[in-house]
C-alpha cells in the first residue's frame, strides 16, 4: 500500500480534529488531489471549499486564526506560494497569524502537469519571510511530527510535500525529529530535506557499495539554523541534495550558516522551470538520478581543498 504524504496529513488532521475543535481546513478546489478530502469527509462542518481563489482563501484563514482557530490551508504548492504570496507576506508573516499552509505537489517532478504546476523555488520564498516555520517531510513519521509542531506553534507554518506516493516500506530509518541522522556523521556528509532525502539515501547506498562511507543528515524542519549548524560542526565537506532549485533552498541555507566546510549543491538548475515527464526521466536529464548524484559526490570528495 502506498499513499501521498498530503493524503496522510489529511487523515492525521481528521483524527486530531476529533479532540481539537480549533482545527479547520480550507481548500482551493483540489481536495481530491491535495489530501484535504479526508478531513472533509470526517468533519464536513469544519471544511471550507473556497474555490480557485487562493488569495481570498489565505485572507479568510488569517481572519480565522485571529479568532484563535487553527486553520490548515490546502492547495498545490505552486498555487499557494506564487498566486497568494502577497497574502502570505502581509496576512500571515507580518500579522503573525498561525495559519498552516499545506503545499502538495511541490518540487520539480510535476509529471504530466508540467512547469505551470511545478514549485521549484517555494522554499526560497518561504524561508525569506519572518514568522513562518518551514517543514519538508519525507515520510509519514515526519508528517505526524510536523502537524504536532504546527498546532503548538504561535507562527504561520508551511508544510511542503511532493506529488509522489510512498509505501510503508519506504519510510526513513530512526525516530522522527526536526533533524534526523540517517547515517552517522562523516567527514563527507550529505544534507537533505523532503523528497531529496530519499534521493540522498539512494546515492549513499550506491556509494557504500563502491566502498565510500558518507554521513546523511535529514532536515524535515528548516527553521532552526543554529541546530543545523551544531549538528554539522566538525564535518569537512557537505553536499546538499534537494528537490528544489540550487538557489534559495537548503544549499543556500547551509551557505548562510558560514560553516568552515565547503558545500556542493545538488538540486534543480537555476534555469529550470519544470517540464512534463516521468520522475525517472526528469531526474536523469538534470543530474539527479541516484547514479548521477553518487558520481557528483565522489567527484566532490576527490577535489583538493583550496
Model description:
It is a single chain. By secondary structure, the protein is α/β, with parallel strands linked by helices. It is 40% helix and 22% strand. The strands form three sheets. Strands 3-2-4-5-7-6 form a six-stranded parallel beta sheet, with helices on both faces. The protein has a five-stranded mixed beta sheet with strand order 9-11-10-12-13, with helices on both faces. A two-stranded antiparallel ribbon has the order 1-8. The mean pLDDT is 96.
Into which percentage range does the β-strand content fall? 15-25%
In the sheet with the most strands, the strands line up as: 3-2-4-5-7-6
Shape: globular
Radius of gyration: 19 Å
Provide the succession of SSEs: EHEHHEHEHHEHEHEEEEHEHEHEHH
Terminal-residue CA separation: 49 Å
Organism: Chromobacterium subtsugae
Domain Transketolase-like pyrimidine-binding: 3-168
Pfam family, one: Transket_pyr
Protein name: Transketolase-like pyrimidine-binding domain-containing protein
